Amino acid sequence: MIKEQKNKNNVKIALIQSAVSEDIKKNLEITLQKIKQAAKNGAQIVCLQELFRTIYIGESENKDYFKFAEADNGETVAAMQKLAKENKIVIITPFFEVAAGKNKNTNEKEYFNTAVVVDADGTIAGKYRKMHIPNDPGFWERYYFKNGNLGFHAIQTKYAKIGVLICWDQWFPEAARIMTLSGAEILFYPTAIGWYKEKESAVYEEYKNGWLIMQRSHAIANSVYVASVNRVGKEFADKSIDKVTFWGNSFVCGAFGQFISHASENEEIIYADCNLSENKDVRDSWGFFGGRRTDAYKGLLKKGIKDSKK
């Protein structure tokens, strides 16, 4: 395992925002080239979008899509390990994971929406499995993925200690808080989000702005950098229904929610120089952590308001 970089304050990150085709080999090849480009431009940590190698399978319930699943030592992760070592970069690699079930004596398998963090020497620094799994029209992820079972743990890499959360996790403030409390200096959110049906442009803007505001609020509440990478383009995993249009808008914001870099709705790589000492400066100035009343927060463990989502 690579050792933490000494006396580090500044780290350059890159988010790769892409359109995805049905050709998984081509998607991988294109992504590898874009990672090389990001490394050439000085990126030290590169984050890919959720399920970057395939179309967004959650749009429909289709047993054929289980063929895309692979182990955490499969082709995708192996390719990233090789590239990370060659370029001395950290790569956050989301993929459709298949793992052995709890009963080792059977052929039982479990499937997860996963991100592996490959360190700058090519070793695996850590792994995160998506904890919050949506089950909405066009986002039928519970058909494919089990709830994550690895918890919320920041991962030490050569350049920074990072927290990785995936897509729907971004709507839950508890996840961001726990990741920060475990030491994360940057929260990364690999994402796949967009419009499922045609709506008025004003509604589009409301949804997109809500998505941006929610994640920027995590940065402010926790005094950490937040980096969210979304895909772009139109996709359909079920040709009998409308395509999903992904809205892009990947971004990096600072520890008080200010945009450092913000993408369009087109394919692009965005970069951000992050001075990690600013996390402490903001935290010390505003006192959000010192003022917490942990003795009064037991109610957070209660379900409370009934939710229609089971």
Short synopsis of the structure:
23% of the residues lie in helices and 27% in strands.
- Numbering strands along the chain, what is their spatial order in the largest sheet? 5-4-3-2-1-17
Span between termini: 40 Å
| Helix/strand order | EHEHEEEEEEEHEEHEEEEEEH
- Structural class estimated from helices and strands: alpha+beta
Secondary structure layout plus pairing:
Layout: E1 10-17, H1 24-40, E2 45-48, H2 75-87, E3 90-100, E4 109-118, E5 124-129, E6 135-136, E7 139-140, E8 155-156, E9 161-164, H3 173-181, E10 186-190, E11 194-195, H4 201-222, E12 225-229, E13 232-235, E14 244-247, E15 251-253, E16 259-262, E17 268-275, H5 277-286
Parallel strand pairs: 1-2, 2-3, 9-10, 10-12
Antiparallel strand pairs: 1-17, 3-4, 4-5, 6-7, 8-9, 11-14, 12-15, 13-14, 15-16
Please describe what this structure looks like.
The protein has 310 residues and is of the alpha+beta class. It has one domain: Carbon-nitrogen hydrolase (Nitrilase/N-carbamoyl-D-aminoacid amidohydrolase, 4-Layer Sandwich), CATH 3.60.110. The protein is 23% helix and 27% strand. The protein has five helices and 17 strands. It has helices spanning 24-40, 75-87, 173-181, 201-222, 277-286, and strands at 10-17, 45-48, 90-100, 109-118, 124-129, 135-136, 139-140, 155-156, 161-164, 186-190, 194-195, 225-229, 232-235, 244-247, 251-253, 259-262, 268-275. It is globular, with a radius of gyration of 19 Å. The mean pLDDT is 92.
Characteristic terms for this protein:
single chain, 310 residues, alpha+beta, Nitrilase/N-carbamoyl-D-aminoacid amidohydrolase, six-stranded mixed β-sheet, 23% helix, globular
